[in-house]
C-alpha cells in the first residue's frame, strides 16, 4: 500500500461524501499501512472525524500533529506500535484499542491513562481502575520528587548557576527517585522527569497536585480488573475494613502467637506487617464476590537483576477464571488475564531468550497458568497478552512447574494420573510456541504437588499425590519415554501409611524435604540423601525423618506448604485463615538426636478479620502461602477471594 489519497479516504469514510470535512468515521484497517503513509496534511482535513480504525496494519508509530482534535474512538489493534506518547494529540479520545501490539508494556498502559484524561475504555475494558492506579502513582512520585527537590536545594551552593542546577536536579531525580516494581520503571522515570521539570519551572513545590490529570466523575468507580485493598473504600461506598479489635494499618504489626524466640535456640520471629488485602479475582468483577477460591501463587524470579541475592516483589496469583500479576509494594495489579469458563489451579514462571526480527536478543518473563480445562496458557507478562496455548491433558491440571535448569522444560500434572514433561521451545517472530512431549510419567493416584529434587533436578522428580509421595527418574538420555513410578515413600510404620495423601511438598535446602499430609497435624522434615541412600532395589522406602513440625489438627486437605530455602523458612496456611511460620535453621544444623516431639511454630499470623459488605469475615481458609526468596514479602491466598500481602520489617 502506498501513501493515502483523498479518493481512498472518501471511499472508506462514513457518511459518504465528496468532502473530507464531512466524514465522521473512517476504516483504514488491513491496508498494510506503514507509519510514513499517514500524511498529516491529508488527514488534518478530516476536521469532523470521530472514529478511526487503523487495525491490522504495520504501524510502528503514529505521526504527530495529525490534526484530529475531535477523535473519540481509535482502533490500532494488531500493529507494531512501540510508543504511545503521540496519543496525547487526541485529547477527546474515549475509546482505544491496542491489542496485538507486542512491543507495548504495562508502563505504556499507564502512560495512556495519564495522557488521555477522558478515556473510558481500553481494549474493550473499563479504564477507571488504571486511572486510579495512575493517580496513586502520581501522588507518591510527586511527593518523592518534592522531597528530593528540598534535599537537592539545600545542598546547592549559592554560587552555582541556576540553570545548571536545575538541569542537574532533573537528572538526579530521574536517577534517584524510585517507586514501584521494575516493570513500571519506564513509566515512573517518565513521570519523574515531567514532574521535576514542572517543579523547577514553577520555582517550588506548589505543583504538588497539578500533575494529576482531571477525570470525569465516573472515573473513580472501578468496575474492571482492580485490586481492592481491604482497608479502603469500595465502589458504591461499600467499605472493607478490619474489625475494631483487630484493626490493621500499614504502621501496625499483625497479631501473632508464639514467642519471639524459641527456647531451644531458634531464631527471633520475623516482624511481619500486613501491607495489602486485595480482592482482584472476582467473578464478573463483582465487589460482592467473597466466594472465589484462590489456589496458587508464585513470585517472579529476578531474571534481569544480575546480582547475587536479587529478588522480585512481583507475584502471580490464580483462582477462578483469572490470573493476576501484583506488585507487592504498591498493591497494584499490573496485569490481569481472564479465561471465561476456566478455573485456574496453578502458575509457574520462566524466562526465555527471544531473537527479534531485527536480530536483537530479548529476555521474556513468561508465566504458565493451568487448571480445570487441561490447557496450559503461556502469558507474556510484560506485554500483557497470551502468546501460546498447549492442549496438555484431557482432564484438569492440578499443578505445574518449570525445570530449574532448563528454562523451556515444563512439568504438568493432571487428574488423568499422568505427569508430562514438555519442551516449549523458543517462540518465533510471530510469538508462536511449538511444544513437544519429552516424557510421560504414570501415577497410581492424582498428583497434587511437583518438586524436582534440589540436588539433582535433571535426574529425579518428586510428586505429592493422593496416594502418597512418589519419585521418577527423569533423565532424558534414558529410555523409555513413558515411565512408571520408580519409588514410593512412606512416612510411618503400618499398612495404611502408603496410601496417605501428600498435599504439601518442598525442599528446605539441597537435602531436606518438607512434606505434609492431611489428618496428621504435623509437617515432616526428612532427608533426601539418607532416604535415597538406603534404597537398593526396593520399590518402597521409609523416609529418614529429621524432625516434625506442629501444625493445625484439621483433617481438611489441600493446604499447600512452601519454603524459603535461603532463609530456612517453612510456611503453611490453615482452615481458620492463619499463617504458620517456622524458622527451622536450628534444626538443619543441630546434631542427632533431634527432638522427638513436634516443634512449635516460630509464630502464627492470625487472620485479621476484615469487614466486607457489612459483615465480618471471621474465618477463611488460607490455601497457599508463598514468600519471595529473601522473605521480604509474604502472599497468602484464601477461599474467600482475598489476597493477603505481608511485609517483613
From TrEMBL:
<dbReference type="GO" id="GO:0006260">
    <property type="term" value="P:DNA replication"/>
</dbReference>
<keyword id="KW-0235">DNA replication</keyword>
<keyword id="KW-0206">Cytoskeleton</keyword>
<keyword id="KW-0963">Cytoplasm</keyword>
<protein>
    <recommendedName>
        <fullName>Leucine-rich repeat and WD repeat-containing protein 1</fullName>
    </recommendedName>
</protein>
<dbReference type="GO" id="GO:0006325">
    <property type="term" value="P:chromatin organization"/>
</dbReference>
<dbReference type="InterPro" id="IPR036322">
    <property type="entry name" value="WD40_repeat_dom_sf"/>
</dbReference>
<dbReference type="GO" id="GO:0003682">
    <property type="term" value="F:chromatin binding"/>
</dbReference>
<dbReference type="GO" id="GO:0005664">
    <property type="term" value="C:nuclear origin of replication recognition complex"/>
</dbReference>
<feature type="domain" description="Leucine-rich repeat and WD repeat-containing protein 1 LRR">
    <location>
        <begin position="7"/>
        <end position="195"/>
    </location>
</feature>
<dbReference type="GO" id="GO:0000781">
    <property type="term" value="C:chromosome, telomeric region"/>
</dbReference>
<dbReference type="InterPro" id="IPR015943">
    <property type="entry name" value="WD40/YVTN_repeat-like_dom_sf"/>
</dbReference>
<feature type="region of interest" description="Disordered">
    <location>
        <begin position="204"/>
        <end position="243"/>
    </location>
</feature>
<dbReference type="InterPro" id="IPR056160">
    <property type="entry name" value="WD_LRWD1"/>
</dbReference>
<keyword id="KW-0995">Kinetochore</keyword>
<keyword id="KW-0677">Repeat</keyword>
<dbReference type="Pfam" id="PF23215">
    <property type="entry name" value="WD_LRWD1"/>
</dbReference>
<keyword id="KW-0853">WD repeat</keyword>
<dbReference type="GO" id="GO:0071169">
    <property type="term" value="P:establishment of protein localization to chromatin"/>
</dbReference>
<dbReference type="InterPro" id="IPR032675">
    <property type="entry name" value="LRR_dom_sf"/>
</dbReference>
<comment type="similarity">
    <text>Belongs to the LRWD1 family.</text>
</comment>
<feature type="repeat" description="WD">
    <location>
        <begin position="390"/>
        <end position="424"/>
    </location>
</feature>
<keyword id="KW-0779">Telomere</keyword>
<comment type="function">
    <text>Required for G1/S transition. Recruits and stabilizes the origin recognition complex (ORC) onto chromatin during G1 to establish pre-replication complex (preRC) and to heterochromatic sites in post-replicated cells. Binds a combination of DNA and histone methylation repressive marks on heterochromatin. Binds histone H3 and H4 trimethylation marks H3K9me3, H3K27me3 and H4K20me3 in a cooperative manner with DNA methylation. Required for silencing of major satellite repeats. May be important ORC2, ORC3 and ORC4 stability.</text>
</comment>
<dbReference type="InterPro" id="IPR056363">
    <property type="entry name" value="LRR_LRWD1_dom"/>
</dbReference>
<dbReference type="Pfam" id="PF23211">
    <property type="entry name" value="LRR_LRWD1"/>
</dbReference>
<keyword id="KW-0158">Chromosome</keyword>
<dbReference type="GO" id="GO:0000776">
    <property type="term" value="C:kinetochore"/>
</dbReference>
<keyword id="KW-0433">Leucine-rich repeat</keyword>
<keyword id="KW-0539">Nucleus</keyword>
<comment type="subunit">
    <text>Integral component of the ORC complex. Directly interacts with CDT1, GMNN and ORC2. Interacts with ORC2 only when non-ubiquitinated; this interaction prevents LRWD1 ubiquitination and degradation. Some of these interactions are regulated in a cell-cycle dependent manner. Interaction with ORC1 occurs predominantly during G1. Association with phosphorylated ORC1 during mitosis is not efficient. Interaction with CDT1 occurs during G1 phase, as well as during mitosis with phosphorylated CDT1. Interaction with GMNN occurs from G1/S to mitosis.</text>
</comment>
<keyword id="KW-0137">Centromere</keyword>
<dbReference type="InterPro" id="IPR001680">
    <property type="entry name" value="WD40_rpt"/>
</dbReference>
<dbReference type="GO" id="GO:0005813">
    <property type="term" value="C:centrosome"/>
</dbReference>
<dbReference type="InterPro" id="IPR003591">
    <property type="entry name" value="Leu-rich_rpt_typical-subtyp"/>
</dbReference>
<dbReference type="InterPro" id="IPR052489">
    <property type="entry name" value="LRWD1"/>
</dbReference>
<keyword id="KW-0156">Chromatin regulator</keyword>
<feature type="compositionally biased region" description="Basic and acidic residues">
    <location>
        <begin position="208"/>
        <end position="217"/>
    </location>
</feature>
<feature type="domain" description="Leucine-rich repeat and WD repeat-containing protein 1 WD">
    <location>
        <begin position="262"/>
        <end position="647"/>
    </location>
</feature>
<dbReference type="InterPro" id="IPR001611">
    <property type="entry name" value="Leu-rich_rpt"/>
</dbReference>
<dbReference type="InterPro" id="IPR019775">
    <property type="entry name" value="WD40_repeat_CS"/>
</dbReference>
